Automatic annotation (TrEMBL):
One of its GO terms (biological process) is L-arginine biosynthetic process via ornithine. Residues 311-333 are annotated as: Disordered. It comes from the Bacteria. The keyword Kinase applies. The gene is argB. Residues 39-279 form the Aspartate/glutamate/uridylate kinase domain. Belongs to the acetylglutamate kinase family. ArgB subfamily. This is Acetylglutamate kinase. It is found in: Cytoplasm.
Length: 333
């Protein structure tokens, strides 16, 4: 028998605090019900992984989502980590239109850092809690296929080297891992038809995967609270915007936020009811977004899809206890 220590010196304040805690917990109830069994794609940006503390808290949040009955899929970047390794290796890199111009030499380092280091570290941190995370590269099992991306700057085509435009997503391997009760962790490297690999912006990769999986949410963690209306002059947070409002805003956005908001638009137009930008510097902001009434950050939503999600419409095959629970019964902690 396990007994809890009792505190005979508990005051009225302690009691009020306990009631507050219980109220906070119960606030999660409708959200637990709505998102149980749902797939949520979480994009973990390199700027939100700059300290050990943040990485550990992120892994805890992902495992919390898992135990709460959601099906989290992590797609990660690692821009600052790539830049640091390129610097250390004496390889120059520049950005055009928010994308890293990637030579063949830089591509080797991008792949090594994303799939060999960042991916391994996230998998390791999640798996401190149990045998959940399985790391993969977007190259694996044809998850992401890409071709050379072409961009126009001032009307002129600019070559970005091995930067990829996603041409296909085969979510089969990720879906199989989810069905097996795992947490897929995906790096944003794509396979090319010519046998090579491409560097894909991680926001774009996360959004493409969210669409292909039919996810209920795409949540992107970054190093600002969300979208600011008139950045950098003004940092007033936009808490919610619809597809038409976002389309009107896109031409005014600059580096960093542009691929993120484009990714939100692609996701929502592709059938994902809600796409969010949240502050990854705040420990457990992911949980505040999913389980509180107010949420945090910026949400882009399609009203019709969102209404169906919030009304609790379930995919036909949905059951409260899906096969992950069966596996858990079979011996998982
Ligand atoms: N309108 C905007 N609102 C908020 N941040 C913006 C905006 N425009 C540009 N940014 C910049 O975008 C950055 C986030 O993008 P990025 O650095 O690519 O992050 P990540 O590594 O998380 O993908 C912010 O730190 C901010 O400097
Ligand atoms: C083409 C391109 O720019 N790829 C990105 C991939 C990593 C990424 O997107 O990382 P964050 O999410 O941390 O920004 C890069 O090389 O930095």
């Amino acid at each position: 028998m396990i007994s809890r220590p009792t505190d005979s010196t508990a005051t009225g304040d302690d009691r009020a605090e306990a009631i507050d805690k219980a109220a906070n917990l119960i606030e999660a109830l409708p959200w637990l019900s709505r998102f149980h069994g749902r797939t949520v794609v979480v994009k973990y940006g390199g700027n939100a992984m700059v300290s050990e503390e943040l990485r550990v808290r992120f892994a805890e949040s992902i495992v919390f989502l898992y135990y709460a009955g959601l099906r989290p899929v992590v797609v990660h970047g690692g821009g600052p980590q790539i830049s640091a390794m390129l610097d250390r290796s004496g390889v120059e890199s520049t950005f055009t239109a928010g994308l890293r111009v990637t030579t063949d030499e830089a591509m080797d380092i991008v792949r090594m850092v994303l799939t060999g280091q960042v991916n391994r570290e996230i998998v390791g941190l999640v798996n401190r809690h149990g045998p959940f995370a399985v790391g993969m590269s977007g190259e694996d099992a044809n998850l992401l296929t890409a071709e050379r991306k072409s961009v126009l700057v001032d009307g002129e085509p600019v070559d970005l080297g091995r930067v990829g435009e996603i041409t296909g997503v085969d979510p089969g391997a990720v879906a199989a891992l989810l069905a097996d009760g795992r947490i897929p962790v995906v790096s944003s490297v794509a396979r090319a038809d010519d046998g090579g690999v491409y560097n894909v912006n991680a926001d774009t990769a996360a959004s493409a995967l969210a669409v292909a999986l039919g996810a209920s949410k795409l949540i992107m963690l970054t190093d600002v609270e969300g979208l600011y209306a008139d950045y950098p002059a003004n940092t007033e947070l936009v808490s919610r915007l619809g597809v038409d409002e976002l389309k009107a805003l896109l031409p005014t956005l600059s580096a960093g936020m542009l691929p993120k908001m484009e990714a939100c638009l692609t996701a929502v137009q592709g059938g994902v009811p809600q796409a969010h930008i949240i502050d990854g510097r705040v420990p457990h902001s992911l949980l505040l977004e999913v389980f509180t009434d107010q949420g945090v950050g910026t949400m882009v939503a399609d009203e019709e899809l969102e209404a169906a999600l919030l009304a609790g419409d379930r995919p036909r095959s949905w059951r409260p206890h899906d096969n992950r629970t069966d596996h858990t019964d079979g011996g998982r902690p």
